């Protein structure tokens, strides 16, 4: 399976394809304005890439289906004075820089309706309105949460969106759902699942979870990798099942920290010995106020550390390679020190785990 971080390369492929497209379109558009005829001659998906298949990435691929949440290239004529473009009645954003008389590059809004709709794209320019028939389908699935450290044979629930006729893979092992709705899938965990990635495929595409199975330290509650926790200041308030917010699953850790206070989690060395399979620590963090934390390992807050910033209005995903914190031969503890410099903060921590090599 592809490393999930490879999906960041899609942006580069998209920008490259857009640059080539606009160069070609501008070369063919010598009038400097509209051609006088509003028409669509073809539609291409900007990037096609199945995350379960190596080497299949393609750009600018002709299609007769629109999947919401993706970039498309609309080719034709009369687009120079584009006012709006909509799919099944919902307008999608377009950047005027990516519009010529012969082409439109558009990100189809993820919320575009797709069920029992008219399957129609509408383009409005100074020349008039063009209604174009094309199949509109949902985005690829989104994965909100699932038990990351299950046991073989467990019946688990995957939550997310757009689970339309879904299938589930544990690594390369395909598992048919026991039951499913648009937002939940129940599946049985197969044997030999550990340290593989879970993925969900719907009618539009495949999404791979960012966490490797068996890699989680905190997942709505402490897991088998969690040994115990330590507080620098016992007066700090902690809720290990805070349910009003979460970046993964339904719960997180709420830590009401005083200024410069610290919090540590020790790994359960008696039942977790696979640290050599990992290359980094990951976690998501959010604060009542935007701030900073000093992340450190093995109890050494003075040497093996890295200071990271976080926001108050959204979760910040942090990934810290072992190479940034001294390349430990053994990882026994991870910790955080409040580092905002403004008298303390309420800090939320979630999705705490390790990253596979």
TrEMBL record:
Q: Where is the IPT/TIG domain?
A: 148-204
- The yes or no answer to whether the keyword Signal is present is yes
Q: Which residues form the signal peptide?
A: 1-24
According to the lineage, what is the superkingdom?
Bacteria
Q: Which UniProt keywords apply?
A: Signal
* InterPro entries per UniProt: Galactose-bd-like_sf (IPR008979), Ig-like_fold (IPR013783), IPT_dom (IPR002909)
- The protein here is known as IPT/TIG domain-containing protein
């Amino acid at each position: 399976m592809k490393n999930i971080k490879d999906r960041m390369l899609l942006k580069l492929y998209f920008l490259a394809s857009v640059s080539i497209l606009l160069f070609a379109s501008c070369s063919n558009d010598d009038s400097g304005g509209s051609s006088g005829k509003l028409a669509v001659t073809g539609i291409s998906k900007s990037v096609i890439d199945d995350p379960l298949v190596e080497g299949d990435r393609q750009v600018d691929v002709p299609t007769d289906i629109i999947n919401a949440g993706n970039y498309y290239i609309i080719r034709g004529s009369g687009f120079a004075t584009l006012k709006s473009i909509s799919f099944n009645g919902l307008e999608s954003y377009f950047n005027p820089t990516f519009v010529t008389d012969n082409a439109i590059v558009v990100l189809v809004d993820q919320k575009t309706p797709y069920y029992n709709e008219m399957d129609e794209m509408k383009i409005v320019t100074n020349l008039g309105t063009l209604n174009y028939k094309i199949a509109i389908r949902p985005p690829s699935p989104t994965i909100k949460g699932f038990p990351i450290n299950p046991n073989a044979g467990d019946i688990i629930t995957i939550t997310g969106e757009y689970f339309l006729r879904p299938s589930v893979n544990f690594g390369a092992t395909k598992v048919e759902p026991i039951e499913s709705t648009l937002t939940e899938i129940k599946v049985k965990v197969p044997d030999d699942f550990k340290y593989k990635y879970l993925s969900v495929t719907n009618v539009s595409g495949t999404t791979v979870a960012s966490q490797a199975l068996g890699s989680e330290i905190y997942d709505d509650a402490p897991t088998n990798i969690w040994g115990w926790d330590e507080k620098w200041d016992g007066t700090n308030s902690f809720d290990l099942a805070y349910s009003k917010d979460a970046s993964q699953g339904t719960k997180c850790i709420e830590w009401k920290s005083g200024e410069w206070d610290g919090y540590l989690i020790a790994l359960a060395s008696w039942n977790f010995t696979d640290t050599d399979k990992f290359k980094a620590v990951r976690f998501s963090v959010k604060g009542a106020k935007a701030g900073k934390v000093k992340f450190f390992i093995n109890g050494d807050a003075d040497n093996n550390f890295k200071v990271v910033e976080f926001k108050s209005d959204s979760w910040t995903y942090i990934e810290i390679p072992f190479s940034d914190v001294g390349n430990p031969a053994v990882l026994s503890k991870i910790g955080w020190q409040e580092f905002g410099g403004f008298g303390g903060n309420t800090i939320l921590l979630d999705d705490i785990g390790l990253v596979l090599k």
